[in-house]
Design brief:
heterodimer; A: mainly alpha; 2 domains; 5-stranded mixed β-sheet; 15 helices; B: 321 residues; alpha/beta; 6-stranded mixed β-sheet
Chain lengths: 412, 321
């Protein structure tokens, strides 16, 4: 075992270095930013004609007179400043309910970013935004201008009161986080596990594989390649996540706190995301590596991996029906199925606060990872050194290899 | 049946022992009952035409592929991978990472065989310097000439100072100068007590380098033993030129004698040279020249493996399955 791990580390180190230090890895890192950049470019171009619905809305709990003064101030400023994205304000008449502000903040139709109360004489802005945010600045301007028009000479500062959303208000947001986390996990796994295939084809074509197979156990080659690509993927994810978080912090007026907080909290959710990505990657990567070992060309890889990819899409669909009902029977069944388990459990992390189900799930998934690695490694061992002239992979030989891998067919 | 092997029970007499190795692929039997014994410290040649089963036999010996049946033991280990740190292997199809530099390529191969990376790098530097490639140490392998790349791969095979070196068709693709260099490397390592096995389809290489050979044809071992023993299977050849074209002396020639380019060529009779000489002189042959030549390995190969196998030796090597 020690020699196996040592050899796997040697191979992983080389593969990781070769991958991360290559120019193509830089392109790989930049790849996801191109569509985001396009969205921003086109978003900026269309910003001036964006609909009111896309602007943040502040509920104004005030009398008709105060609200009218504020709305007129907003219109004047809008005319004076030109095509600046002004926040929307919407009047809500005082109901006398002490929970009115909290209820407004919990409302999703319409969704308010904050609530302004106290009228023009004693304005208080309640919400989860920062004091330096654009929303607070604009509200201050509206109030100051409205008061000026009412010829009230004494200036007043809008009091900003930070509030957290009530737990009930987070349900829809958490479901959003659950779906987002699930989709991201699925896309990353599919994208990055696929990289293993092309890498193995390259290895077979430059004949290094025989040098490796003569020097170290085949299992070590398999494990080393898987770990190297997992590490390279995690580097990519770390870069993307950092840039994404920085972008959100810069662009959003409320920073990362604008995102719906997962039930287990962001730090634990982050750790679980990495763990479930690793599990999902290892499970799918093991299958892809087994397939890659059998294929002789990129075309064969595409042909052979298509059914696995389609199956994975179905599994993702199964996992997604568990969102919103983490304790239902179908959610538990999907969590028990090894290939869908990581997706279901990351969604659960967004929706349910208990930690122990994740410990059980990780142990369960680790067991399956070990089984998948073992099986795929046997297929890999059987297939990888058939390096003769390129031949088409027929269905029967492929199936026989797979069956031999699980010990259901003869080896020769 | 080989005795149960472990590195500790290894006597050291044979670096490699194989008994009845068989390898079946889907469509054919590539190796059919190969048995070999390679003495420790010897230079052992595996001689055979293309497709004879040399590469498959070497791969089985090294544990790269498992035999369908039969047993093998390498440096005392019945599982060859257990001896991997003491083995160096140069495959027939050279395999290097093109983007790696020469130094890292060699060090990586050393690390695979258990060498700490730091030590592997320092040895790589030494080896590259010794072989005139010091200036190329930091260059990507893809920028090296084919001969240089082959040298890099050979150095990677030797960097961990193995006790058994297996070279599959090491001379193929090398020019005469590099072939000479490689021969020197093989001799130097053998002088240090390292066992060397190489496969070749060029008889001259085996004849120059090997103490022991195995002639493989059609997946079977046609001969396994000393080069001298292979040659001794044939009678010495007599080349005779006479002044007389006819006479009673001709009765002294064996029936198989043939006349080529003014010379009579025939195997030396079992009775030896003296009775032959006496009969030629007494019969008035008028001996102009008489040479008794020891047969070469090529003749021995033809006699052992047959003409067809000898002709196949000149064909380009195919990729083994």
């Amino acid at each position: 075992m020690r020699e196996l791990l040592r050899a796997a580390f040697v191979i992983a180190r080389r593969d990781f270095t070769a991958t991360v230090l290559s120019r193509t890895f830089l392109l790989f890192l930049l790849g996801p930013f191109f569509p985001v950049l396009m969205i921003f470019v086109f978003g900026a171009a269309t910003a001036p004609i964006g609909s009111d619905a896309e602007r943040p809305t502040v509920a104004v709990v005030a009398s008709d007179q105060d609200y009218k003064a504020l709305d007129q101030a907003r219109a004047r400023l809008s005319n004076a400043l030109g095509p600046v994205t002004m926040i929307n304000i919407r009047q809500v008449r005082p109901s006398g309910d002490p929970q009115q502000v909290q209820k407004l903040l919990q409302s999703s139709q319409p969704a308010y970013i904050a609530v302004l109360e106290g009228g023009l004489s004693n304005p208080r802005l309640i919400g989860s935004m920062r004091r330096t945010s654009g929303t607070v600045k604009q509200i201050n301007l509206f109030v100051a201008d409205a008061r000026r028009m009412q010829e009230v000479s004494q200036p007043v500062e809008v009091e900003v009161v930070a509030s957290k959303r009530a737990p009930g208000a987070s349900v829809s947001g958490r479901a959003l986080t659950a779906r987002g986390g699930q989709s991201l996990l699925f896309l990353l796994t599919l994208l990055l596990a696929g990289m293993l295939l092309s890498q193995l084809i390259e290895e077979k074509s430059n004949k290094v594989i025989e040098v490796l197979a003569a020097a170290v156990p085949i299992d070590a080659i398999f494990l080393g390649k898987l770990l190297a690509m997992l590490s390279a993927s995690l580097v990519g994810i770390a870069v993307w996540a950092s840039v994404g978080a920085a972008a959100i912090a810069i662009i959003s007026s409320t920073g990362l706190s604008a995102l719906p907080v997962p039930a287990v909290g962001w730090p634990v959710f982050g750790i679980l995301s990495i763990v479930y990505f690793a599990m999902s990657y290892l499970l799918l990567g093991a299958i892809f590596l087994g397939i890659g070992a059998h294929a002789s060309s990129a075309r064969e890889v595409q042909t052979l991996s298509m059914p696995v990819t389609m199956a994975q899409v179905v599994i993702f669909a199964i996992a997604s029906i568990a969102v919103g009902t983490p304790d239902s029977g179908r959610a538990l069944a999907a969590a028990a199925f090894p290939l869908s388990s990581p997706y279901v459990m990351i969604a659960r992390a967004a929706e349910a606060p208990e930690i122990w189900p994740h410990l059980v799930a990780v142990a369960w998934q680790l067991l399956w990872v070990a089984l998948f690695l073992r099986l795929a490694s046997r297929i890999f061992r059987r297939s990888v050194l058939k390096s003769g002239p390129v031949k088409r992979v027929g269905t029967r030989p492929f199936l026989m290899t797979m069956l031999a891998g699980v010990g259901l067919a003869s080896r020769n | 049946m080989l005795r149960q092997a472990s590195p500790h029970s290894w006597t050291g007499e044979y670096a490699v022992e194989a008994v009845d190795l068989v390898k079946d692929f889907a469509e054919k039997r590539a190796v059919d009952g190969v048995s070999l014994s390679v003495p420790t410290g010897s230079i052992f040649g595996m001689l055979g035409p293309n497709g004879a089963g040399k590469t498959t036999t070497l791969r089985m010996i090294l544990g790269i592929i498992e035999p369908s049946s039969g047993e093998r033991r390498v440096l005392g280990c019945s599982r060859p991978i257990e001896a991997a740190h003491r083995i160096g292997y140069l495959p027939e199809e050279r395999g290097l990472y093109p983007a790696m530099n020469a130094r890292e390529g060699i060090a990586f191969m050393g690390a695979l065989r258990g060498l700490p990376l730091k030590l592997a790098r320092s040895r790589a530097d030494e080896l590259l310097d010794q072989n005139g490639l010091g200036d190329w140490a930091k260059k990507p392998i893809r920028t090296l000439s084919k001969g240089m790349a082959q040298t890099v791969q050979l150095l990677g095979t030797l960097v961990h100072e193995p006790r058994l070196i297996v070279l599959d068709e090491p001379f193929s693709g090398l020019d005469a100068i590099n072939q000479g260099k490689l021969e020197r490397v093989i001799r130097n390592r053998a002088a240090d007590g390292v066992t060397i096995i190489f496969s070749t389809h060029v008889i001259a290489h085996a004849e120059r380098l090997c103490e022991q050979i195995a002639i493989i044809a059609g997946g079977k071992v046609a001969f396994n033993g000393r080069v001298d023993d292979a040659r001794a299977r044939l009678r010495p050849i007599v080349r005779l030129r006479t002044r007389a074209t006819d006479g009673p002396w001709k009765a002294a020639l064996p029936d198989s004698a043939r006349y080529e380019g003014g010379d009579w060529i025939f195997e030396l009779p079992q009775s030896g040279p003296e009775p032959l000489l006496k009969a030629l002189i007494d019969g008035g042959a008028g001996i102009e020249t008489l040479a008794i030549e020891r047969p070469g390995l090529h003749e021995a190969f033809v006699a052992i493996a047959g003409d067809a196998a000898a002709q196949a030796m000149d064909q380009p090597e195919e990729v083994a399955p």
